[in-house]
Amino acid sequence: MTTISIIGTGNMATAIGIRAARYGHTVEIIGRDRTKARAAVETIGDGAHVGTYGAEPNGDLVFLAVLHQGAVEAVRDHGDALAGKTLVDITNPFNDDGTGVVTTEGHSVTQQIAAAAPPSAHVLKAFNTTFRDVLAQATPLDVLFAGHDEGARAQFAAFARSLDLRPLDTGGLEMTYVLEWAAILLMGLARNGAGWDVSLGAQIR
Amino acid sequence: MTTISIIGTGNMATAIGIRAARYGHTVEIIGRDRTKARAAVETIGDGAHVGTYGAEPNGDLVFLAVLHQGAVEAVRDHGDALAGKTLVDITNPFNDDGTGVVTTEGHSVTQQIAAAAPPSAHVLKAFNTTFRDVLAQATPLDVLFAGHDEGARAQFAAFARSLDLRPLDTGGLEMTYVLEWAAILLMGLARNGAGWDVSLGAQIR
């Protein structure tokens, strides 16, 4: 059991918090708007608490659950307070109708975050191919992830397993752009018969 | 049971042929090199036969199982002989090290094929997120697909179900570019712990 920190107070922040708390982790919610952070904490329950925006998060694993447009700014707002942390970017840089991404190869949101974060921070992408309601349920589920640093990937994988998720490592930081496209694939499945309870995964013989 | 045609004589052509033949379909193999086509037919067995390159394929469902660089040329070589057919592009336009695609948004290989094919042909992409050895095995498996025309998508889905595959419709022709990225995701999974028996799929509650 560990403490995780979530920067963000929206639906995905709450969904990650609910799942983490249900499996015995302590959840810190960090938002620029403390009223919204308090509301998210109440929704999560189970010992969740409000952290201080801009200060060092309590958790070593810090989820960036803000809109993609604000992710780099949120990282800059915390500056050196994120030194040594493992940052998990969950954002999706969808275009207006969710049919493509506004990022370009080599410049995923995650890669932009990595460029803005302290050099000692490690940056991953995960949970962007899972709808919030699916994630909040306590069913087994695959979670695709990618990112910087073997140790940080192992740390995330262990955390995911503790939530009854099967972590599927897709590779290094350059693969985070591919994960951004994978979310468009998920949208396509949802819109064409699979419905909104679908999640991407893998079959391994 | 139906007849399917496969343009191409390589490993993926053989894998699709083996699976189709195993489930009772008749397989026509069409290759510029008749010797290679004959060899593929022998590998497939079960009534598979060699077709004539450039002539009208016997099947209504025609798989384009050539290298991505030659796919448009193969379609042009057949010209109006492909009128009214459903063409299934299985190619992957990988870059040299399989970490990205050489196509651009709006110009997937499938979209290039659609532009070169007779107007009455419908063009899909499928099987590009499944390794050949996995496909050739008769286990249940998810198959992601996308493409032009509701009717053609339904036709492909019915064929896939007849092979004990679960067809997962991801949308229209524009989604074929997303499927090309999905194959890079598959490569990332294979290289980072999942191994080469992995296949992309979906979890649906």
Automatic annotation (TrEMBL), chains A, B:
InterPro entries assigned to the protein according to its UniProt record, in alphabetical order: NAD(P)-bd_dom_sf, P5C_Rdtase_cat_N, STEAP_metalloreductase
Keyword Oxidoreductase: yes
Lineage: superkingdom: Bacteria
GO molecular function: oxidoreductase activity
Keywords: Oxidoreductase
Annotated ranges, domain Pyrroline-5-carboxylate reductase catalytic N-terminal: 3-93
PANTHER family in the record: DUDULIN-RELATED, REDUCTASE
Protein name: NADP oxidoreductase
Lineage, top ranks: Bacteria, Bacillati, Actinomycetota, Actinomycetes, Propionibacteriales
